[in-house]
Each structure stands twice: as C-alpha cells, then as structure tokens.
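Hi F.,

I've been meaning to write this up properly since the lab meeting, where we talked about keeping a consistent format for the predictions we share between groups. The idea is simple: the sequence comes first, exactly as it goes in, then the structure tokens exactly as they come out, then a line or two of notes. No screenshots and no reformatting. I'm using this chain as the first example so we have something concrete to point to.
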Amino acid sequence: MPTNQNEHIVTPPVRLTVGTATFDDVKNALRAGFTDFTRRPGLGLFFGLFYALFGAFLIAGLVIFHQFWIVIIVGVGFPLVAPFLAAGLYEISRRLKYAEPFTASDIFLVIFMQQRREFGWMAFVVLFVFWIWAYQIRLLLAIFLQWKSFSTLQDFVAILLTSTEGVSFLVVGTIVGAFLAIVLYSITVIAMPLLLDRDVDIVTAMITSVKAVRQSPVVMLVWGAAIGAVTLLAIAPVFIGVIFVFPILGHTTWHLYERLVSEK
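Output, unedited:
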C-alpha cells in the first residue's frame, strides 16, 4: 500500500532504566577502561595531551595576566569539564565493544558531528555552571579579601593560607564550590556518554544522570570525588599526569554508564 508523502513516521521515545551502582561496578569499569586504553593507547594519549595542554595554557595565561583568583576556579573546576571533552574516548570504547574497525579520522568525525546533536548543548550547561562558579568566587573575594592586595601568585597564596580572611574565604568557597561541583557532576556523568550513544534529548540525558547519582549516592559521589582527587594530583607535576589519567578515566566513565543504563 503506498504511503502518503505527508505522513511522518513517529519514533517512540526511548525508555531508559537506571541500575544501582556498586563499588564492584566501579572497579570492573576501571579495569575495562584501562584495557581500552592499552588497546588504542595512541588515540588515548592524544586526547590526554590535548586536555593537559588546554589546562596548562589556560592557567599559564591567567598567571601571566595576574588573574590569580581565576586560577582557583580553573584548577578546581578543571576535572569537571572532563566528561565533555571525553567524547572521543567514549566513541573508542563503544567501537571496541562491538569490534567495529575505526581510524583516528572516524573518531574525530564523530566528535565533529556532535555539534548537530544534543551533545553540543551540554557545553552551554557546563559553561553556565562555570559562570555561576566564577561569579560566586568573585563575590566571596570581594566580601572576604576586599582590603587585601596581591601582585603575585605567591602573595595570593600567602594571604589565603595565613590570614583569617583568607582562611574564611577558602572554607566558604569550598562549601559553595563543592555544592556546584556535585550539581555539575550529577547532570553530566551519565548524560555525556548517553547522548553520544543513544538518540535522546538533553533533558532526558540529564534526568537519567541525576537518577543514577540519586539511586547510588555513596558509590557515585565517592567515584566523583576520586575523579577530582586523581585529576588534581595529575595536574601537580606540570599537567604531565593528566596525559595518562584522562583517557583511562574517560574510558572508565563509558563502561560505568554501560553498566548502569539500559533500555526497557
């Protein structure tokens, strides 16, 4: 029977279920992530190097132009943008799972094509949260350090660690920053690989990600804290550690997503 050209085929919405995460899931995902890294180390190290250079040049530029207060935002928030930059790693893990042959150009093409999908909108979400983060840090600086002056990074660190105002700024800033970090982590940790893997909208992806965190808060938040701590430690030796840590964590995030999210 001929089909009317004006008719539209309506695709039923994807119905997703979220499983409960355990520490064994995290351990197994980490093992699988490391295996993926060893199978295609060249691509993994490329993405790790890109991530490291991006952070190093950004912080170096802030120091050169004496924007020391922003260094705090970038240093603490740096691990939180990793899921967005790890799209290529997610695609590598996906193709390795299904034994699909691929080249570096295939992976870069997939990353480029994300601008036409919902994945690209997550950039606005991440930037919006970072804008709030930067605003509250600037506000707290004005409240606690309004009479303090610093011309070098060393002076700024000394004020933070040796003055009552500086310590108060660190305590309050850490509390507010931790809250925003949890919010950003919760809406992105599962949403990023989900948007790459399935044809879902950004709202569904964020809701699913939040469900995963709410359903297994201890495991997911401990994992998030571990990502932040490991990344910050990797930053310490002039970002060199990031080159190796970033791809392993990216692959691991993909495998954790696969263990938690399935279609009904």
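Notes:
The CA atoms of residues 123 and 144 lie 31 Å apart.
The first helix runs from residue 23 to 39.

If this format works for you, I'll send the rest the same way.

G.
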